[in-house]
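U., I forgot to send this yesterday:
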Amino acid sequence: MPWLIKSEPFKYSWDNLVRDGSTTWDGVRNNQAAIYLRSMMVDDQLAFYHSNEGLAVVGIARVAGEHFIDPSDPKGRFPAVTVAPVRALAVPVTLAAMKAEPRLADMAMFRQFRLSVAPLTDAEWDVIVAMGQG
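Result:
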C-alpha cells in the first residue's frame, strides 16, 4: 500500500534521508497517524512530502522495517517505522499541482491535512509518480 509521509525540511529533509540512508520515522503523536504507521508493511512505498517549506512531494521512499515502539515516546504508546530513500522525483509535485489534479481530489491528505502520514490509493500513487517524472 502506498502512503504519503510529511516532514518539515528544516527539521528533516529528503536530502537528510538520502544522506543517512534510512531513519526512524518517530515523534508521531496523533492517534489516526499512529494507526496508519501500525498498518505499514515492509516495502510499502512512501511519497516523501516537504511540509511548511516547499510544499511538495520530492522523493520516493519505502518502509524498511516493521513498526516498533517509538523510542522517543516515554509512555510507549506510539509506533515508529524505519524508512529508506528509493529515489528523488525528477520534478517536485507541489501541493498546488496536486490540488489542481482532479484525480487527486479525494486524497486523504486533503481531508486530514494536519496528519504527518496518510494513505494513498494505488491510483493516487500512480498519478503522483507520473507527475514527478516531469
